[in-house]
Write a structure and sequence with these properties.
The complex is a heterodimer of chains A (259) and B (243). Chain A is an all-alpha fold. Chain A has a domain of 140 residues. Helix content of chain A is 75%, strand content 0%. Chain A starts with a helix and ends with a helix. The relative contact order of chain A is 0.15. With 243 residues, chain B is of the alpha/beta class. Chain B has a single domain, classed as Rossmann fold, CATH 3.40.50.300. Chain B has eleven helices and ten strands. In chain B, the strands form two sheets. Chain B has a six-stranded mixed sheet, with helices on both faces. A four-stranded antiparallel sheet of chain B has the order 2-1-4-5, covered by helices on one side. Chain B is globular and about 50 Å long. The chains are: A mainly alpha (259), B alpha/beta (243). Chains A and B meet through helix 1, helix 11 and helix 12 of A and helix 2, strand 6, helix 3, helix 4 and helix 5 of B.
């Protein structure tokens, strides 16, 4: 198997892994997608709203992702592995703060890194415990424009098809250029052009298929259930905890008990 | 059921793809649409579905194919695309099957009942909650047929339904086609499959109809097929050599 195919296969496998995770059956998986979405938004909002020097206050926010990972039966290491490409970018946020602000800059840099990491962890746990259709239905419930949600849904559905196309084209290229490492710069234009044309063909067929089944711009998400008491308790409980953690510096309060 | 009267279609650059097509298809008939690449089979189907404009008259159940009647016509005709990936755009088989009925205003309960009925009929119940990007090519093709059947169409059009299938899945699709009690139009190069499923064949070449008649007659006519860049079905080749 060629190197290109391996990369494409790995990408597909990772996508499948996420499906497996999202289709688990833990307490967290069973929560209504809308509740998970709202809690995640509230969590990220709270985390981001901490002052950039409030390092101690922010620490307490780590409890939410850690607990949810535990209840979902997903290892935290899985999260960091899946986010390995994004995390370095997040960690680079505020990297120059120590240069411009000295010691205070160091604290603000760490706070910014933590904010980014916590937000990513919360987003990951939502995606890893919610199937894509549930997530899209929840996004529509909070009035995210239909066009964006449709794009998200179709991107998720077709990313594997696109990866397969890339794998086929890469293999076809390598079979006729055995001594080259990767794809030569001069071939990138036509390579990407071909990929674009193939994507456009697929998009056109897909559009026809949707039209023929009476699509009028709005997806109906079939597998939705109503909110139950447990969903509401989780929603209210989490938001109350986040507000408490934001208003009171719980880490300092707890520390004060021992000093 | 379906009527084509003096139907023509040309692209904007003037290239004529369909040339003066005239034929009728009765209710319950199974028609094989055959011809070499570029003969106009897929274009004919797209014109029938109103995906491409046309000159002349096309009627489906006495309704003329035009902008005004398009929704009603598409409700009557189900189209199984050549590439099932283009057809199965929802994440799971279940969501995909619910898509059509829900868009046509059926309640969730009604749509769900249809889904269960069709899956049971095709022996695909095990696929119900599977992800579309995780099922095999053969399963995807069967599921694509299932998504169309949930809309309970009066006519089913199929574009190359046996392409890229292994023998077992090909046979499965053939059996499924033979089990469908609706009008069927099947465009294919797989003449053995056409022989197994269709009672009548329309042979096209260069956008025009060259022959229209019983499948057994046309698919046995070596000269006619070869003159139109095709050859006898494999199962008949052996027989002719033997004779």
């Amino acid at each position: 198997m060629s190197k290109g195919t391996n990369k494409a296969s790995n990408a597909l496998n990772e996508l499948r892994d996420m499906d497996e995770l999202a289709n688990g059956n833990s307490l967290v998986h069973e929560l209504h997608p809308l509740v998970k979405l709202l809690v995640t938004i509230a969590y990220i909002y709270c985390v981001v709203s901490f002052s950039k020097y409030n390092l101690t206050g922010l620490f307490i926010m780590l409890i939410y992702p850690v607990l949810v990972f535990e209840f979902a039966g997903i290892k935290i290491s899985t999260c960091f592995y899946k986010l390995r490409l994004v995390l370095p970018l997040v960690l680079m946020v505020g990297i120059f703060n120590p240069i411009f602000e000295g010691k205070a800059g160091l604290i603000s840099m760490i706070t910014l890194m933590m904010k980014g990491t916590f937000s990513l962890m919360a987003s990951f746990i939502m995606v890893a415990t919610t199937p894509i259709d549930g997530l899209c239905a929840a996004l529509r419930k909070i009035h995210v424009p239909s066009i964006l949600v449709t794009l998200l849904l179709l991107t998720y559905r077709y990313i594997s098809v696109l990866v397969r196309e890339v794998a086929i084209m890469t293999d076809a290229y390598k079979l006729r250029a055995p001594k080259q490492k990767g794809i030569a710069m001069k071939a990138w234009g036509s390579f990407l052009g071909q990929l674009l044309l193939r994507s456009m063909d697929k998009a056109s067929e897909l559009y026809n298929s949707m039209q023929l089944r009476a699509f009028k711009g709005e997806f109906y998400y079939a597998s939705q259930r109503k909110l139950n008491a447990r969903d509401l308790v989780f929603l209210v409980g989490c938001i109350a905890c986040f507000v408490c953690a934001r208003v009171f510096n719980i880490t300092e309060l707890l520390g004060g008990l021992f000093v | 059921m379906i009527e084509f009267k003096n139907v023509n279609f040309s692209y904007e650059n003037g290239i004529q793809v369909l040339k003066d097509l005239n034929f009728e298809i009765a209710e319950g008939e199974t028609i094989g649409l055959i011809g070499c690449n570029g003969a106009g089979k897929s274009t004919l189907m797209k014109v029938l579905l109103g995906l491409l404009p046309h000159e002349g008259t096309i009627k489906v159940s006495d309704l003329e194919v035009n902008k005004k009647n398009l929704e009603e016509i598409r409700r009557k005709i189900g189209f199984v695309l050549q590439d099932s990936d283009n057809q199965m755009f929802m994440p799971t088989v279940y969501e995909d099957m619910m898509f059509g009925p829900l868009n046509y205003g059926h309640t969730k309960e009604e749509a769900e009942a249809r889904v269960d009925e069709v899956l049971e009929e095709l022996g695909l119940t095990y696929l119900k909650h599977k992800y579309n990007h995780k099922i095999s090519g053969g399963e995807k093709r069967m599921a694509a047929i299932a998504t169309i059947l949930t809309m309970r169409p009066k006519v089913i059009l199929m574009d190359e339904p046996s392409t890229a299938l292994d023998p077992e899945n090909r046979r499965r699709v053939i059996n499924a086609i033979n089990g469908l009690k609706v009008t069927k139009v099947i465009a294919s190069h797989d003449l053995d499959m056409i022989l197994d499923t269709c009672e009548r064949v329309i042979l096209m070449h260069d956008g025009a109809i060259v022959a229209d008649g019983p499948a057994n007659e046309i698919l046995n006519d070596k000269e006619l097929l070869e003159a139109n860049h095709m050859e006898l079905p494999f199962k008949l080749q052996g027989l002719q050599d033997y004779v």
